[in-house]
Fold each of these.
Amino acid sequence: MSLLMTLGIAATTMLAQSPSQVGEVRLHIETDSPKVELYRVTSDGVGSISTFTRSARVDIVHFQRECFAPCDMTLSEPRSDFFVAGRGINPSERFSLLGLGEDVTLRVKPGSTVTRALGWTSTVVGITALSLVAAVVLVEGVDSLGKPTLGGGMSKETTWMVAGAGGGAVLLGGGLTLLAFSGTDVELLPTPKPAARREVL
């Protein structure tokens, strides 16, 4: 009986000391931007907007700011959802601070809202240009664009179509590239403990 009680107490002690069960986390943010801020999600909700003809679902998120980079403070309730954002910085994906021990480092590579806006604009303009070229070709037919003759150049209509398709493709590719690099990346790492100093006798 005493052996079972001893094993139960030992298991309870190990569970209490497990990194996933810590009640507080000391956090450090490692980033090149002083505008990085850490936010805690306090609650989620769902709402709806209705008109006479249709309705739409709206996700409602309540959050509060916890600290500015480099933070270096103790946070309670690490099981909450957190995200990184800031002025001119795209919000990151949500993450939890559980499972990394009592000392955690966030390595943040912020993404720019300006870059994302340029990416969306370039993508939309590129898709629009390609759609217009495709619509003209479908409506008028390929033969209506004119064919190059021996010793002569392309017709003016064909030149504009080729230029429009090429420009649209460049804008689309550039926009997708900007969008891919505009996100905020967060890497969660356990904070390394300083090495113990050795005294020379």
Amino acid sequence: MNYTESLTYKFIEIEKSLVELQYLRTDLTYIANQDSIYFESTVKDSFFFKRVFINGTRLVFINLHMLLNKKEDFSIYSILDFIQSNYQAIEWHRDFDKYFLISLYQKLEHLDINILAELKTLRDKYLVHNDSNKKSFPVRIGLEDAWHILDCLNEIYAAIRLRFDNRQLIFEIYGDKPVEVMNLYRYKKIRSYSLERITSPSLQDLNNIRMIIKDKEPA
């Protein structure tokens, strides 16, 4: 495997992690959206969605830590180091000078050092290891901090890929609404509506059920 192929392999693995984080961002954002039509009836008191949210949040912080860990084979730091050491041996679609690479390192260095320290503490004391004295290490990092870090990593990765193979990557929240949550919301609403009128359903009742399926309020 030559240096270009090695870099391609690293890109594939890192992009998997970034895309997975974007999907988690979508899921967690919609599950936690208290202004949504489905939150009160479907999410708020659900232990299932609470577990999904907690475990999804754990994955976000663990994956972010891996992408920022200089010792990992597939991290943003390791890919920048690989490019710096092997630039001349890699086939590039667009050449660039050392200042471009320096600017990408600087983007990482400009991340809030306190947030990065908290990310490491959260990973080491709470998520990967169940440290007996973890209560001595209070953690204040939240998902908004995680999304800020993710945006930075996405920006760096997209800039490198553009110069490597001219791929223009735009990372964004995928999808409009979580289909499974919306289907469960519709089912619960239709069930409630039908049970109230089960003795004598009318044409208007059927029309109202169709309205519910379209996420509209029945007449």
Amino acid sequence: METIDRLSYDEQKLLVETLLRQDYAIELISSEINDIESGLKQVDEGFYHQLKLLYDRLRIK
């Protein structure tokens, strides 16, 4: 069972809000993109594209 499945909707929301408030979310997304681009992680093109879009949205405050 994935961690996300073990968390309630409210817990998921609290986690995301905390990551965003502390500016950790953009750091995590940036690190994930870097790992993909450097070949450390393999993902499908759609997932990579979604990460790039999310990164752009998070950068604009």
Amino acid sequence: MPPQAQGLNAVKDVANQPRASLNSLASSIDAFWIAMGVAFATFVVSAVGAIAAACTVVGTPAAIAGGLTVAIGIVGATIMALESHTNTIETEQNAITQKIHGIGREWTMPNVGDMSDASVADGDGSDWKADDR
């Protein structure tokens, strides 16, 4: 029965992997939205500063330059957060695939002939032994 026990343990690993993967993906989604919130808050603060600077004639070019810099930073942060999330998805898909391939292609059959042989000492490989506990 050891091959069947090993097979069942492999199936258990496959069944546990989606749970671990979903937890990892949930954390990745949380991190993505936190990054988006920080980027949006940065945008709001910068927009208020740029509007205040643009109210003066002298500050208008600096406001435009600052606004563009912040916009580029926000786009960069968004791309990095999305790339990180995509990498997490790919990693978890690979983990699930590996667990599935770890099961193997066929289930090992038990040696039913030896298991059904109830003889104790007939000399074949199925000789049962009493447990000395």
